[in-house]
Design a protein that fits this description.
globular
Length: 181
């Protein structure tokens, strides 16, 4: 796997504080990149995952002075990613409506389904209401507690528990499995 350096080499001499700031972001990037891609995949699918994660990390880099001082920068960055994912979905919906208006009467192409239990499960997760999708993704991919998920989403722990319960019930029903998620 090729590693792309996020921080450009500086042509001028940086202060110690700037260098420390850059290095702390590089560490954060290397620790958080994969989990962010996984979260983006869970809420948005394969096509958008890497782009959403990269856009999120770019936004984090631009505001790193403020974000790194937070108690848990990962929480803030996950919130950024989920907001970007929501914007992405809204944009795609508008684009799809515009495209459909231009293609009325044109035969639609059916794409083959991606196989595999994992893909099926995450496809069903993405069909859940947005908040339920986010709760499931944060819980199963990032292994966050309900309190941590509540912080990321800016909702109460009780709301997280409600969304989790409803998501599990729906997934158990549509997947035809015992509710052991």
């Amino acid at each position: 796997m090729r590693v792309i350096r996020v921080i450009p080499e500086m042509e001028t001499e940086n202060s110690v504080e700037e260098t420390t700031n850059l290095r702390s972001f590089e560490r954060f990037y290397s620790e958080q990149r994969r989990p962010l891609i996984a979260l983006a995949y869970a809420v948005s699918g394969r096509v958008a995952a890497e782009d959403l994660a990269q856009e999120t990390l770019m936004a984090a880099y631009q505001a790193w002075d403020q974000i790194r001082q937070k108690d848990n920068p990962g929480t803030w960055v996950r919130r950024i990613l989920l907001n970007k994912a929501s914007s992405y979905h809204r944009r795609r919906l508008v684009e799809a409506k515009v495209m459909l208006k231009g293609f009325v009467g044109v035969d639609r192409v059916e794409f083959p389904e991606v196989t595999g239990d994992i893909e099926r499960i995450w496809a069903e997760v993405r069909r859940l209401p947005q908040r339920q999708t986010e709760v499931i993704a944060l819980s199963y991919l990032d292994d966050l507690s309900q309190v941590e998920i509540a912080r990321v989403l800016g909702i109460s722990k009780e709301s997280v528990a409600t969304h989790m319960r409803r998501a599990r019930q729906t997934l158990a029903r549509v997947l035809g499995i015992e509710e052991e998620l």
